[in-house]
Specification:
By secondary structure, the chain is an all-alpha fold. Helix 3 packs antiparallel against helix 6.
């Protein structure tokens, strides 16, 4: 399902930024698609940290096979021994269980996120062990479909801006912010198209 704001964002970005407009025109039939349930999405992000996509998929497949439902309760009931047997490191087991505890205890309540700003959601998520700002920003873009997130620490964004706007020369976070002012309030959309300029196939976070 395409986000409601997508077509409007494409039009406005194309009008205000020539480089962005050219990228958007190259990919007319693809768009950002929403991800699954919040706990499942965040758990998958933790599983995939610091390992290859192929290895992460193998661990995730074992996890899904071992736990009937990847929910906070399902993870807590599975316990550390079963999670370790699925291929998670001890630290990642701690992270997944800490995430489950935050959901189960009511410290994280997805139903109230719609009343919270981006930075408030990021602050709440980064209280969980193993979730840093980048993971929280990816969650805002791919799960909550927030339209104006600029993940300055993302290497793909940095590379795409360097290639598209600086002829491959290195660019600082301040430089990216300066360019991205023109993209507001659609910086998530601009970021997504810049990723496409490097890899036409959308990835999942």
């Amino acid at each position: 399902m395409k986000p409601q704001y997508w077509d409007k964002a494409k039009r406005e970005l194309s009008r205000c930024d020539r480089v962005m407009g050219a990228i958007i025109r190259r990919y007319p039939r693809i768009h950002l698609a929403p991800r699954g349930a919040p706990f499942l999405t965040l758990s998958r992000s933790i599983v995939g940290q610091q390992i290859s996509v192929k290895a992460a998929q193998a661990v995730w497949d074992r996890l899904v096979a071992a736990i009937p439902e990847v929910t906070p309760r399902g993870a807590i009931e599975a316990g550390p021994k079963l999670l370790r047997a699925c291929g998670l490191s001890r630290r990642k087991v701690e992270y997944v269980l800490d995430l489950a505890a935050h959901f189960a205890s009511g410290h994280i309540v997805p139903e109230r996120w719609h009343t919270m700003g981006d930075e408030q959601v990021i602050a709440e998520l980064t209280e969980v062990r193993g979730i840093g700002r980048w993971t929280a920003e990816m969650f805002l873009i791919f799960n909550l479909l927030r339209p104006d997130v600029l993940p300055l620490d993302d290497l793909g964004l940095q590379r795409a801006v360097s290639l598209g706007y600086r002829s491959g020369r290195r660019i600082s976070a301040t430089g990216i912010q300066r360019i991205a002012k023109a993209w507001q309030p659609w910086r998530s959309v601009a970021t997504w198209y810049l990723w496409r300029s490097l890899d036409p196939v959308p990835v999942e976070y």
